[in-house]
Specification:
The chain is of the alpha/beta class. It has helices at about 15-25, 40-50, 65-80, 105-135, 155-175, 190-205, 210-215, 230-240; strands spanning about 5-10, 30-35, 55-60, 85-90, 135-140, 180-185, 250-255. The protein has two domains: about 5-185 and about 230-250, Rossmann fold (3-Layer(aba) Sandwich); about 190-225. A seven-stranded parallel sheet has the order 3-2-1-4-5-6-7, sandwiched between helices. Its EC number is 1.1.1.100.
């Protein structure tokens, strides 16, 4: 993957940051984008440059809820790399849970905007150059909730299932051009969103954080442990490798066996 260029959304923390590190370690130039204080982001870029001296690293800001900003983001990326990028990882996401009758419309709009509209617009902008070059990798971060659901997660499941649908359609269109498109579907991942859920569960049930973690994993995963960022990142890197040339349109579950029950 040396001299390939990757855009990873939501890459200032959590899973996105892990994927960016793993791609950088393989020689990819990296475009980071995500939320965070400017000083923290500046330090993050410096860290990448120091750790991976042979690659280029840029941070390009973008509010993925604003189509105009997505358009400006794509222009900025194309200015940096006129031949286009090679890898797009649509990782950015949000979580909000509530009974459907209490679910705020603005939260629904945010869920669809971040999880479906932003990936659609980014793929729309970048896939053309991938096709022209005859090589490309698109990875969409879905979830086990894209194939199952649970109470208070209907909108989240709808958005993640929709992302799987986008993945399948794009895979079929791009397949003759050497471009693959796949979805990774983690279960409960050892990432900031999951830890926020654990804290919320602990508060609701008057438990300590560790007790809440133990309680959840009695039923959450047969493996009784979360999926790690390292594991997700390694799968993403494999999907970008030549060994995955024939894997496209797949929704790859990493859920500790949860959905086979």
């Amino acid at each position: 993957m040396e001299n390939k260029t990757a855009v990873v959304t939501g890459s200032t923390s959590g899973i996105g940051l892990g994927i960016a590190h793993h791609l950088a370690a393989k020689g990819c130039h990296i475009i980071l984008t995500g939320l965070g204080e400017q000083a923290i982001i500046d330090n993050l870029v410096k860290e990448f440059i120091k750790q991976y001296p042979t690659i280029k690293v840029n941070y390009v800001p973008c509010d993925l809820l604003k189509p105009d900003e997505i358009s400006e983001f794509c222009k900025a990326v194309k200015n940096l790399y006129p031949d286009g990028i090679d890898i797009l990882v649509n990782n950015a996401g949000i979580q909000y849970t509530a009974p459907i009758e209490d679910y705020p419309k603005d939260k629904w709009d945010m869920m669809i905007g971040i999880t479906m509209t932003a990936p659609f617009l980014l793929i729309k902008e970048f896939v053309g150059n991938m096709k022209r070059k005859g090589w490309g990798r698109i990875i969409n971060m879905s979830s086990q909730m894209g194939v199952i659901s649970s109470p208070e997660k209907a909108p989240y499941s709808a958005a993640k299932a929709g992302l799987i649908g986008i993945t399948k359609g794009v895979a079929l269109e791009a397949a003759p051009h050497g471009v693959t498109c796949n979805a990774i579907c983690p279960g409960y991942a050892d990432a900031p969103i999951f830890h926020n859920q654990i804290r919320s569960y602990a508060q609701q049930h008057n438990l300590s954080y560790d007790a809440a973690m133990t309680e959840i994993f009695k039923t959450a995963h047969p493996t009784q442990k979360p999926v790690t960022i390292e594991q997700i990142s390694e799968l993403a890197v494999f999907l970008c490798s030549s060994g995955a040339d024939s894997i496209t349109g797949a929704s790859l579950l990493m859920d500790g066996g949860n959905t086979i029950r």
